[in-house]
């Protein structure tokens, strides 16, 4: 199972468009993409995991903490429905969704198959060392021309996770803004195939 977590102002249906790129590589995989819990001001059919009215570090940390129980409940409800262990479930996030994935995944009691994070950041880095329970493999991909989430956020997250002993790969998409390119999609597909097929 691959659960996709969308970015600010988007929705689950939008991120499900990625599935057409990955279906052939993952033929026996179910893909799901929930809507975030809050409607997004000024974005018709858009949702947010938390408000971005305050862009400060403390607000980000509070935001991921507030939404985390909902993401965990979604994972567990659908994992149970398909009779899948945690290590057969991967998370894929974009932007704010990546922040959610990187927060939730390492704090789950049983390790997930892996996490792919596009154009995001580690939202609560200070608390991670004392709160992490598992170390799923990670892939981070970020455009070096991103004007929404700073490109430097990728290397900051990579450093933090590597220091904690995570298996992590980080790739820059040259000239790319706040988006996902074909190279990033290929990297994501390769990572998910390895992560989901390696889990026993």
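Q: What amino acid sequence fits the structure above?
A:
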């Amino acid at each position: 199972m691959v659960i996709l977590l969308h970015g600010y102002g988007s929705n689950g249906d939008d991120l499900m468009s990625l599935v057409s790129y990955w279906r052939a590589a993952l033929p026996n995989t179910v893909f799901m993409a929930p809507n975030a819990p809050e409607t997004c001001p000024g974005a018709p059919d858009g949702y947010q995991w938390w408000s971005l009215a305050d862009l400060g570090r403390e607000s980000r940390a509070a935001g991921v903490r507030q939404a985390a129980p909902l993401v965990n409940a979604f994972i567990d409800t659908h994992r149970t429905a398909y009779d899948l262990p945690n290590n057969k479930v991967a998370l894929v996030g974009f932007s704010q969704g990546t922040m959610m994935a990187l927060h939730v995944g390492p704090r789950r009691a049983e390790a997930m198959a892996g996490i792919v994070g596009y154009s995001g950041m580690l939202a609560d880095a200070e608390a991670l060392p004392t709160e992490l329970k598992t170390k799923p493999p990670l892939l981070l991909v970020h455009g070096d021309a991103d004007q929404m989430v700073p490109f430097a956020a990728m290397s900051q997250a990579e450093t933090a996770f590597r220091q904690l002993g995570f298996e992590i790969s980080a790739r820059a998409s040259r000239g790319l803004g706040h988006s996902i390119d074909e190279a990033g999609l290929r990297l994501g597909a390769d990572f998910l195939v390895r992560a989901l097929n390696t889990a026993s």
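Q: And what stands out in the fold?
A: The chain has a mean pLDDT of 95.
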